[in-house]
Amino acid sequence: MYANEKLIFASGGRSNFRIPSMIVTNNGTVLAFCNDRKDTLSDAAQETSLVLCKKKPGEDWGEVEELVFLEGWACGIGSAVYDNEIGKAFIFGGRNPISRHEFKDYAPEEKAEMAKQAAKMREEIRAKGMFSSYKLESTDDGET
User: Which end of the chain is less congested by CB atoms within 10 angstroms, N or C?
Assistant: First the structure.
């Protein structure tokens, strides 16, 4: 993703950035969000996190920060929205258990086992008070 000819999310090493979204706060801070898919561009990456990069007025872009990561789950990005009236930034997304490789042919027994593992992971997450979808919000230009 480029902003004013500055590459914000530079894929390289293990990181493969996809699906950028950007909002601007009432104070002029730019919040740029993206998926970081480790080692692949695939939707079924074994490690996927939601990341943020901020730019405050008169300053350069900050470092990429990891916002959402859960081992064994792909943390996908949804929509970034800013409510000008209340001064609140929102980012929505979803988490899905990683239990398959995208382009492999599986035997029926393998598919059944993966479905069982995914159901178990979902139950463990619910037991911890976590859910497969998420909403993050900030009223302080992405500081918290």
Answer: C
Helix %, strand %, coil % of the chain (to 5): 15, 45, 40
Question: pTM higher than 0.70 for the full model?
Answer: yes
Shortest CA distance to 81 belongs to which of 89, 93, 72?
Answer: 89
- Measured CA distances, 79 to 6, 35, 101 (Å): 22, 12, 26
- List the beta bridge partners of residue 57: none
For 45-58, how does the pLDDT look when each residue is reduced to its tens digit (9 = 90+)? 778 889 999 999 99
What pLDDT digit, counting tens, does each position of 88-140 carry?
A: 999 998 877 666 555 567 788 888 887 888 788 778 777 776 667 788 999 99
- CA angle 77–25–20, rounded 5-degree value: 25
Tell me the H-state helices in 70-139.
108-127
